[in-house]
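We modelled the chain as a single entity of 273 amino acids. Its sequence is:
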Amino acid sequence: HTHTTHKNTNKGRRRMVEESEVLPWLATIMIVLAVPTFIALVFFKRAPYGRYISEGKGYGFEMNGKLAWVLQESPCPIFAVLNFFLASDNCLHSLPNMILLGLYALHYFHRTFIFPFKLRGGKPTPFFVFMGALVFCLINGYMQTAWVTRVHVYPESWVTEPRFLIGVVLFFVGMAINIHADYTLINLRKPGESGYKVPKGGAFKWVSGANYFGEIVEWTGFAIAGWSYVSLAFAIFTFSNIAPRGAQHHKYYLEKMKDTYPKDRKAVIPFIW
């Protein structure tokens, strides 16, 4: 009996060694890709989904927006649950590990199974935009959840570490900003209304892309709380992918509502950009 247990731990250890080598590579690829992603989205091409769907020629056939959203985001909550059941004992018994896994799962359960069903109507999504999001969620969903369930064991004392506490607070502040902004946008027009309206309240006081600003704060908090290369890569890629979108929305609002749009409002980062 002891022999089989020993063999199993060896097997577990071997898998752990492999993953601990794979994850930094995936994180590096993500950071490297963040740079051209940011440059392309800021200077060359806005991602053709949502209000820019008309620019989607050449991005494949159009999918139902809600269906595309649920499918593309679903690897994240699936990996959170799957890796919880495949977790090492050490990770399972570490409170900081389970809190970090819980934060990740909390965001994506809302993002995948609640948020899309609150959207009214919703524009279609081109197939290749959907595929890009799906590949990202597959890689990142695996990467973030494998890190806290098998690869890295945080000491119990990490829960009182200032970095962890500051990170968790930032995560929830960002999440609140993000969700408040999303639902402000969803409820901006009353049923039957059309035309452009200025979103107000919450972080919209400072930025046009309040929902993106919230998500950037959220994953920056997550990266600080986890203090790992893997969570840092996610925060960097998130910024490079969604900050340009906030900037495009800002430009769009300024063009459509020249006279009525608040002049002191920034695009994504309050007082800066």
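As a brief sanity check on the tokenised model: The mean pLDDT is 90. Residues 57 and 131 are 15 Å apart (CA to CA).
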